[in-house]
Sequence to fold (1023 residues):
Amino acid sequence: MNVIPRVAAGLNLNETKLSSKQGFLLSRVDGVTSLEQLVKASGMASEQALEAFVELKKRGVITWDGAVPSDEAETEEDEIEEVADSWVDMAFDPFELGEEVALDEDTKKKILYYHKTMNDQTHYRMLQVERRAEAKEIKRAYFRVSREFHPDSYFRKNLGSYKQKIEAIFKRISRAYEVLGNEQKRQAYDGTLPYESTPEEIEDRRNVAERRERDRALKKERRQRLLRRSPVVLRKRKALKHYEDAQSYVEQNEYTKAANSIRLALTLDPKNEIFERLLDEVAPRANEIRAESEFRRGRVEESMGRIEEAISAYLRAIEASPSDARALHRTALLLYELGRDMRQALTFSRKANQLEQDNSEYLLILAKLYTELDMKKNAIREYTRYLVLNPLDERAEETLKDLKKAVD
Amino acid sequence: MGRVLGIDLGTTYSCVAVVEEGSPMVIANKGGYRTTPSMVAITAGNRRLVGHLAKRQAVTNPENTVYGAKRFIGRKWNSELVQDMQKNSAFELVEGPHNDIRINLGEKEYSLPEISAMVLTEMKRVAEDYLGVSCDNVVVTVPAYFNDGQRKATQDAGRISGLDVIRIINEPTAAALAYGFGKKLEKRVAVYDLGGGTFDISILEIGHSVYEVISTAGDTFLGGEDFDRRIVDWVVFSFAKEHNVDLREDPMALQRVRDVAEKSKCELSFQNEVEINLPFLYSAGKNKTLHFQKVLTRTKLEELTVDLIERTIEICDRTLTEAGVLKSDIAEVVLVGGQTRMPKVQLTVQKFFGREPSKNVHPDEVVALGAAIQAYALVAEKSEDEEETLLLDVTPHSLGIMIVGGYFQILIEKNTTVPTSAGHVFTTVKDGQTTVKIMVFQGESKVAADNELLGEFILTGLREAPRGEVEIDITFEISADGIVSVAAQDRETGRQQSIVVTATSGLTEDEIQSMAEENKDHLLAVAQKEQFDKVRSQAESMMGEIEKLLPTVEQVIATAQFSNDALKKAGNLTKRARKAIQRRDFDALTEVFEGLKRTVDTFRGLAARKQTPGG
Fold:
């Protein structure tokens, strides 16, 4: 991060397209300020600014020596460094820094930094320890820092104005340790500092937050699970699903399926008007279709001689479409042929004839049924109708004659 | 800076050490002794004797032999202790010009720093003889409980001796340095230092090579000498009881008793009883001399000194309590000082701390070693892997000023890490007041006068202003040596105020300068005398040879018709040389020295001719 960006040589700004943000950042690049400082001074979020600089470099607008500080590891490292050498960024008085003494520049900076800031630093910062450090750590830190700033470490060196500064810093350090090295004084001092959570507390809080978050998630899930399980909601949801299915089936002209779905939907959510409306729309056509298929099935069963199955199929067809004359007729016919349930057969046949008048076949069966049930007048009437339509049926004529005779 | 020595300037014995190739070592004197008696004597011929030489002649020259000078250094003439001690000293104490103490030796009065300077000079010589290079920089140790005056006087001693005392460190701290050297310890230790004249107890926290003194206390008038004195008193009283004679009136007898007391005390550390036998101790009239002969048992000695040992324990207890340190917190007890050899002392310490004291250090040498380690730490260029030793010592006394009502206001608490400083603002109490007097004390009493007065500081030349308007910032500073300095500044003008220091028992700058000059002169004179003696003995041996060859040379000259110029010249030279020797005229002697050399050569040549005739 301590690389120094420079504007690329021979850059023609007019040929470079930059965003206003990039333009601003570029205007800060002076070939002196380090990338780190530029990022800090940008007023932007550091990641953002850093990204923008990296982008500028990729585009060849600016250059710097060294790697692009892109990975996180480097940033972290840099942060650590920042903590250790807070004085790196400080603006130093060149006269002070230039004083000819037996100290290297880093040491001078360190001394100037501490001397300038020591009255604003907490005792903890002076000893470079954590607020929650144990007594032993504090002692070790005091020893470590003392080594750095005890006047004896610079014994009889030419220190100029630094001599007094080192002494002042050491006294400041001693004062810090006088307080932090004593349990009671330390507690009293801590009371004067803004409260800082203990790692345990932070940990606790984090746990609490985590637990809360977890609880919330669990609750939500449970509620959802409960909701899903709640009959009403569950059914409505399912109903809706079926309704949606039904709609799509309608679109595909699959009316049976559509009707099934909508019926399911209605089972789950009765009284749903929307569903009912759709059902009203779909059901007749569905019934027709079903009746048709059942009818066909009945015919197949019939052809195979499975009369009972055929009757069942026809009955289902009737159920689906009570106005399916064919099915009514065929049922009546079969029952008649089986000589069973004549009354029921009569009902079916009558209905079939009502629905489809002037069908000779239907009329014949109806007549036959009346005959069989000894309802002669009705039989005569139907035979008569039949014979109008089918005058060539001699057998029927004979039967009619017989009937008429019997009545007479 | 070259090699820097560590000197343990003890009450009874001194010791010098140096760090050689990274490890500290004690330097033995020419007699092979690793410690040198801190004794100084002026002989009848006005010769200065230091160390073993002084000790050896003490019996015959008790009035002019100083021992235990450290017990008086930096003290005031009018202090009770001094008045008391005066009665027990064979040498004469007199009042100095600053309420200080001077010692009358021979024809001259010596200040205490001068006496200590002589010991320091001797220790320097011991080191230089061994190392073969000149050593001008030293670290000197003092008892931890020494106050500012005592420390300053020790510093003055250094200056008078011409040494640069780069640092004064506390004896128990030095002992801890040597104890922990190179061990990478991390623990809390107690140093129990019962030396020849002083007692110190220091509690230290050692963290690798950092030595932090947590607290320290002591008694600068409690040591082996007091144990000796109990034996001396026992002898004196026994003798008085038996013969009705006070031995203290006879300095020579008293010195004999003192010698035997010390010796017996030491012996009783290793055996259960000792026979004190002093024949012809006191002459009572014509042909009548009294003897002393009595057995002193270890039990008796312990009985005589039980209160002294108890006092050290009381101080230990107080220190621990004040520092808030539990005995169980202490991982090691280090015994320092010759008096800790006494079994009863060891036992009592062991009982108090509940642990057996460490015997890993040499009680007589460890302090000097520590001083050398500190010297090395301060000045030597260290290699990368060497751990820098750092001392974080404390001030043993609270520092403060006298306020209204004679009370003592503390500005720097005792056991504060040094170097440290504290400020105080003074205001004028009268209109137009131009001076302010500040009385600075060291001690723990609430009443200022009960503490040790370090000095009166008078601020002069204040601005004339209505009262309360002039505010003066006074800064009291205690250096790493434990020495106090005061600076004053006008708050408003920022002007440094001049301070006049009065009422200290210390020597003035002029006195120190002239004493240093005198010492230099003395050393020069000694050196010249040595040089003169060397040249004289050579000259004398040459003259002897010339005389021996003379008859032969006369014959040769007579036969060979040489002019007898050579003979005349030789006679002349010998005469001049004799005169120069007689007058101890070094310059005149060196003038004729070359001529003598040539004459011997010529005579040898002529004598050779005689042996090879015809040549």
